[in-house]
Specification:
alpha/beta, 5-stranded mixed beta sheet, 10 strands
Length: 229
């Protein structure tokens, strides 16, 4: 039995959700952003009020931890940490690109050998991307990619590869291999975090609230500080 508060602020979309026992029971989203500084606190208050009004204690907080917007991630992670301290509950960190795969796996009919390549825009022809199989096993680690005609060729040669996210649209003219498939309107949203958060709870995979930082800040800020401000 678990109730988890989910926070997602890695792109221009601001979203908050509450899940209980593996089902989303509350969600708020703003696609008009970036508006995290003004909307996130309001959404979190509404989510916590919803849980309280239904006598559902929050057992953990899950936050999307990048890669993504430098400012958005800082706001989201700071809010998540504050709630964890206030409620005395553990923190779960969920990779943003993994969150983006959830609606694709839930609602798309994919071939057995399909690979997933969620992409976050890094301006110009750069994207942050990871390659997963349908079991969300990482086939290629997250990287900051400059996309050209030869990008992902080793995967496209053997598998249908599904590209999606706010970095995928600009790659259509470059990735013309017959195995390249593009999906529209896929966003990292808090309501898609619950399957991944539930797995983290089952593994007892919690973060140190005091020292946890977003993935983007730790891995990419030294070389890519301006692309995602």
């Amino acid at each position: 039995m678990s109730c988890i508060l989910h926070i997602e602020t890695s792109t221009e979309v601001c979203s908050v959700a509450v899940s209980q026992d593996g089902a989303s029971i509350f969600s708020k989203e703003d696609f008009k952003g970036p508006s995290h500084a003004t909307e996130l606190g309001v959404f979190v208050d509404e989510a916590l009020s919803f849980a309280d009004s239904h006598a559902i204690p929050v057992d953990a907080v899950a936050v999307s931890c990048g890669p993504g917007s430098y400012t958005g991630l800082r706001i989201g992670v700071s809010m998540a940490k504050g709630i964890c301290y206030a409620l005395g509950v553990p923190l779960i960190g969920i990779p943003t690109l993994e969150v983006m795969c959830v609606p694709v796996l839930l609602f798309r009919d994919l071939p057995e050998d399909a690979l997933l390549c969620p992409m976050i825009d890094a301006r110009r022809m750069e994207v942050y991307a990871t390659v997963y199989d349908r079991a969300l096993r990482v086939k290629r680690e997250t990287g900051a990619d400059v996309v050209d005609e030869n990008s992902y060729s080793e995967f496209l040669a053997e598998h249908p590869v599904y590209f999606f996210g706010n970095g995928a649209a600009k790659c259509k003219d470059k990735l013309t291999h017959p195995n390249a498939r593009f999906l529209d309107d896929i966003h990292p949203l808090a309501k898609w975090m619950f399957p991944l958060a539930e797995k983290a709870v089952a593994r007892n995979d919690f973060k140190d609230v005091a020292y946890f930082e977003p993935f983007y800040l730790k891995e990419f800020v030294a070389s890519k500080p301006k692309n995602l401000l």
